Amino acid sequence: MSSRVFLIRHGETEGTRGMEHISTTDHTLSTTGEKQVEVTREQYVGEGKLIDPKRASAAHFRRHHARENWKLKENSNTRYITPRRRDRQTCEILRLGVHQHQHFYDRTTKQTTTTAIPPVTGEIAEATIQITPSLGEWDYGEYEGLTTDQIREKRRQGGLDKDSPWSIWESGCPGGENPQQVTDRLDELIREMREVLKSTTASWPGGRMVPHVNEEPRDIVCVGSGQSLAALAMRWVGLPLKCGVRLLFETAGVAVLGFEDEDLNQPAIILGRMPVAR
């Protein structure tokens, strides 16, 4: 089995309940949102489940490459979240197999913080979770806190979009980000993730990059907001963001990215996976 990238949307917040566009407003999870993430953890996270924390850890990689660890330190990141509290809460509830403490490294402030969590049963895996603005939700600018209908009405009153309704995937947001800006920062993150995944692959004839026979494939987990994760999926397979107009990401939902024929040079969106034998 080749490496995979799991995209997990945060649980419900006050903003998502009202169908509002929320990016910079730092909402926390609602009680319902916390319960949603707990269900996601119980169903999908754990040893032998879809998201096995052992595969999303640098620990096994260090065991195999202790002599080269100094070279790989910068490429050992396998868990990413945004700077928003809703995403950190989601990550804390998911636990991801980390034993008693989760360590978060903020790439903007260069500070590491630690959160205590209930002890995790079964085999554990340790990794520092990277807080990066590259994964942040689309900056909605002047449209922060508005619903899609409110945005379209505002633009209609301003004489815009006479031929077709507003779409963030094509027009972006005044005072916020446009599609190219979102594309650029997500592409940078994808390049980093691909370098991480290359660490357990080998080159085959014809240019294929496949899992190394002596290495356990590594997985990556990204916790964020709906539209940024949908945009990440589009860029993962090299599609322009305008293709994301009909992609929906439910709160506390899980999506999977991977590779066709286990070839790192053929990124793909996985629409369905076989059940895990237990």
Tally of strands: 10
Q: List SSEs in N-to-C order.
A: EHHHHEHEEEHHHEEEHEE
Shape, per Cα inertia axes: globular
Biggest sheet layout: 8 strands, mixed
| Helix amount | 25-40%
Give the end-to-end Cα distance, rounded to a whole number of Å.
Answer: 16 Å
Average pLDDT reading: 85
Structural class: alpha/beta
Strand order of the largest sheet: 4-3-5-2-8-1-9-10
What's the oligomerization state? single chain
Question: Helical region count?
Answer: 9
Task: Give the percentage of residues in beta strands.
Answer: 15-25%
The parts where pLDDT drops under 50 for at least 5 residues are 58-75
Organism: Aspergillus pseudoviridinutans
GO molecular function: sedoheptulose-bisphosphatase activity
Protein name: Phosphoglycerate mutase family protein
At a glance:
The chain has 9 helices and 10 strands. By secondary structure, the chain is of the alpha/beta class. It starts with a strand and ends in an 8-residue tail after the last strand.
Please supply descriptive tags for the structure shown above.
278 residues, alpha/beta, eight-stranded mixed beta sheet, two-stranded antiparallel ribbon, 9 helices
Structure commentary:
This is Phosphoglycerate mutase family protein. The chain has 278 residues and is α/β, with parallel strands linked by helices. It is built from 9 helices and 10 strands. It has helices spanning 14-17, 31-44, 59-64, 69-72, 85-94, 148-157, 168-171, 179-198, 226-236, and strands at 5-9, 79-81, 101-106, 111-116, 128-131, 201-203, 209-211, 220-224, 254-259, 267-270. The strands form 2 sheets. It has an 8-stranded mixed sheet, with helices on both faces. Strands 6-7 form a two-stranded antiparallel sheet. The longest helix has 20 residues, at 179-198.
